[in-house]
Amino acid sequence: MARLSEQGIEVELADSFRARRQNEAWRTWAARGRPFVILKAAVTLDGRATLPGSRWVTGEAARRRVHELRAGVDAVAVGMGTVRADDPKLTARDVHALRQPRRLAFGRGPLSAGSELELRGRALGEELRTLAEEGVQSLLLEGGPTIAQSFLREDLVDKLLVFVAPRISGKGLSFFSEVGTKIQLKRLHAEQVGGDVLLSAYVHEP
Fold first, then answer.
1. 7 in helix, strand or coil?
2. How many independent structural domains does the chain possess?
3. Could you tell me whether strands 196-202 and 159-164 are parallel, antiparallel, or unpaired per DSSP bridges?
4. 8 in a structural domain
5. Residue 159's domain is classified under what CATH number?
6. What CA–CA distances, in Å, run from 79 to 20, 39, 198?
7. What are phi and psi of 141, to 5 degrees?
């Protein structure tokens, strides 16, 4: 701005959220020294992470959106509980992905033989700083309540994407029950995705 002004060009500073959102990953990476962390969750209407008798909580359109999200970030991660339960691939499939994200597992190993995930076993903050140094600007955090709540407790989540299915589970793990702290969300937005609703909000605005 100073260089432009010195050349006689009139400069006006506009604090535009729409403009900041376009560079939200880079802004967080540059200012905080860690990737911009997006927490994705899929829950029933009563906040459960599982639905008895079904592999999936949400519908096909929501699952496709997740693959689109994977295609747009530098890395995708889950916790070791999800790795042991589901052996996820974490690739962006059946969407136009120019490249595949790095695929990470946070927690104590070992990984199974032949796993293509990277094991990150140190403290979360330390691992995120290392990933930032390696050029990872955006991280999509998937998996279950345990890893999600660990990131939330350490204030390492910047944005929430919660897919809510129009179903009541009645039992099972509650996704956010053990966060242990109050979190004020900003810029809440609701969008219908197939038969589900996607709620998006920021924990830290870019």
1. coil
2. 1
3. antiparallel
4. no
5. 3.40.430.10
6. 30, 12, 23
7. -95, 115
| 96, two tokens | 């136009």
Q: How confident is the model at residue 204 (pLDDT cuts 50, 70, 90)?
A: very high
Within 10 Å of residue 52's Cβ, how many Cβ atoms? Answer: 9
Do residues 157 and 184 touch, judged by C-beta distance below 8 A?
no
Q: What are phi and psi of 63, to 5 degrees?
A: -65, -35
Closest to 105 in 3D by CA, of 74, 127, 83: 83
Inside any domain, residue 10: no
**Burial of 81 (C-beta count, 10 Å sphere; 0-12/13-18/19+):** middle
**Is 181 within 8 Å of 193 (Cβ atoms)?**
no
Distance CA 157, CA 152 (A): 6
pLDDT tens profile 44-92: 999 999 999 898 999 999 999 999 999 999 999 999 999 998 999 999 9
